[in-house]
Write a structure and sequence with these properties.
The chain has 13 helices and two strands; from the N terminus they run ββααααααααααααα. With 216 residues, it is mainly alpha-helical. It folds into two domains: 98 residues, Endonuclease Iii, domain 2, CATH 1.10.1670; 99 residues, Endonuclease III, domain 1 (Orthogonal Bundle), CATH 1.10.340.30. A hairpin with a 5-residue loop joins strand 1 and strand 2. The longest helix has 16 residues.
Length: 216
């Protein structure tokens, strides 16, 4: 079996076979996805570990290009400031020297203060994960959904607030304007139960048509 269901009874992505299963379903449901898959080539699994550092990385990426976010993250890593303990001990000027804005420094400290039970999030429903995360200052729906897609491996999550996804959908579906977050969230309902594979495909498609990464 290519997919598995965990304690919360939601479909999870854990291998390339899951991606292949999702792509096959999407291609049958929407011909344009089959076209996108042909152009995009192999779709990466892109699963990551969960925990504080991954949420911090998502906060760093907010409203920045992939290149800019990578540069800041690499400076944080070089300074050994990617753990909750390190952020708590760091001075604001240390974090600013790595490229974090005052606002994102506040967000990083709020994430520390939240003292999340990351292990519990693995078995929580996606709705519960999002509701838990968005209570933390600096974490909105986009950050929570990105975490659910890449760190928790949820198969049926989309991130309609992502500008690269909006642009990819505009191009692929020949839309006059880039869809809003609300419009894209409604549109993506038709791609359930494989919305996270649709997102991966659209990011890969975006990379091909725009010649740049759309997500870290």
């Amino acid at each position: 079996m290519a997919t598995k269901f965990t304690n919360n009874s939601e479909r999870h992505i854990f291998s390339e076979a899951c991606i292949a299963e999702g792509l096959s379903w999407l291609g049958q449901a929407e011909a344009k996805f089959a076209d996108a898959a042909t152009l995009a080539g192999p779709i990466a699994l892109r699963l990551r570990e969960d925990g504080f550092s991954r949420l911090l990385g998502a906060i760093v990426s907010q409203q920045l290009s992939v290149a800019s976010a990578d540069a800041i993250w690499n400076r944080l890593k070089s300074s050994y400031m990617t753990t909750a303990e390190a952020i708590e001990k760091a001075r604001d000027e240390d974090l600013r020297s790595c490229g974090l804005s005052r606002q994102k420094i506040r967000y990083a400290r709020a994430l520390c203060a939240a003292n999340l039970d990351y292990a519990a999030l693995r078995d929580a429903s996606t709705d519960e994960v999002v509701k838990t995360l968005v209570k933390i200052s600096g974490i909105g729906a986009w950050t929570a959904e990105i975490y659910a897609i890449f760190s928790l491996g949820r198969a049926d999550v989309f991130a309609p607030g992502d500008l690269a996804l909006q642009e990819a959908v505009k191009i692929l579906f020949d839309l006059e304007h880039r869809p809003t977050e609300k419009q894209l969230r409604i549109m993506a309902e038709k791609w359930s139960p494989w919305r996270a594979v649709a997102a991966r495909l659209l990011w890969a498609y975006y990379k091909q048509v725009k010649s740049r990464e759309g997500v870290r």
